[in-house]
Prior knowledge:
It contains eleven helices and 13 strands. By secondary structure, the chain is of the alpha/beta class. It has one domain: Alpha-Beta Barrel (TIM Barrel), CATH 3.20.20. An eight-stranded parallel beta barrel has the order 4-5-6-7-8-9-10-11. α4 packs across α5. The protein starts with about 35 loop residues before the first strand and ends in a 48-residue tail after the last helix. The relative contact order is 0.22. Keywords: Glycoprotein, GPI-anchor, Lipoprotein, Membrane, Signal, Transferase, Transmembrane, Transmembrane helix. InterPro entries: GH, Glucanosyltransferase. Belongs to the glycosyl hydrolase 72 family. GO terms for molecular function: 1,3-beta-glucanosyltransferase activity.
Amino acid sequence: MKGTxxxxxxxxxxxxxxxxxxxxxxxxxxDSKVTPITVKGNAFFKGDDRFYIRGVDYQPGGxxxxxxxxxxxxxxxxxxxxxxxxxxxxxxxxxxxxxxxxDECMNALADAGIYLVLDVNTPDYSLNxxxxxxxxxxxxxxxxxSTMEKFAKYDNTLAFxxxxxxxxxxxxxxxxxxVKAVTRDMRSFLRGNKLREVPVxxxxxxxxxxxLEMAEYMNCGTDDERSDFFAFNDYSWCDPSSFExxxxxxxxxxxxxxxxxxxxSEYGCNTNTRKWEEVEALYSTKMTGVYSGGLVYEYSxxxxxxxxxxxxxxxxxxxxxxxxxxTAFKKTDNPSGDGxxxxxxxxxxxxxxxxxxxxxxxxxxxxxxxxxxxYLTKGAGKAVGFSGxxxxxxxxxxxxxxxxxxxxxxxxxxxxxxxxxxxxSSEGAAAGFKPTQFTFGPAAVSxxxxxxxxxxxxxxx
Length: 461
């Protein structure tokens, strides 16, 4: 994120399976008319129809005034009217209080046909990119598991973001195994507790240092280790621009063959007047064979001139960026049919260590911290919310290296007598087989990076 709540979300991602509407022990409302979003190949689907994310990033107050917009039912319902006017189907929220009640807002969003992409981290409960082995502990996992437990019951929870901009340069790539380990643990938690297997993935920073390597890394290895999707923040299209001038044509080329759904977790350069010319490209067949839409940064103004509206108490005033975005969405339809998606999907090859940009020397992941194993089958326990003491220097860390396939619940909890490396609970792109390994070369274009303005995981000191 651009210097407000980007730092709130840091840590993990789920797995590489098609995400089925599995039985849940947390009952969603009985009259829900929302169809859960699933993964097929490298795309999202709503039933049998291709689903493209048309959304905004939504965190009124930002990092300076940490609040849970989904727990604020009045504010949520107020803003839903603007979401509908813009033609949105998705919002992204960077941080929630997992001890609060979210039923009223989530049901109102569902009634409006709007899905939620949720970051499971907070500033106090997240991975520390400079010291990930300490911050990857049982206290941290218990917190994010509690958040997942609360939101997996809602059919309109589209996805969980395991982390946001944890890796933002070459040296911080050393944290990648911990990001991926929590990915594995999150998948195990959902499966082990028979929760709906909500898609989970990672949101990468707006830097080209190692974005492709991170994308490959989150999609390589055994089925239990792989992500359900990959997203990245991209501010390289600054109006007036074009598909070629922005370098988006090269990104499509470089990601062609990637086996997971790919979308923009933040976009909307404000260097010049925002005309939102990129909307037409993003939802055209030039991109939909690889991309599944994106999330505009951001809904509410936080002092950085990215907001579409200004909120003052109960009053909301829209601006010219809001009007221009509404026009851009209104005149841009989704492609007919399946948008030329890759129905097969498939795993990537793990990237080879290449200092200084990619400093990961092994494909091995840390094992889940021993005290956290109980959460994989017995639930997360009490949610402490924003009042918790934090996790970065608490709890018990991992003390060993995991074997491949340890994301299988039985293997993780020590109840399996066999090798779990080939096991899977899913039926999607990664299910039950080892598909062709896809790789792609380094980016052929240098991105217009505004990383200096992106705090990333800066709250994670």
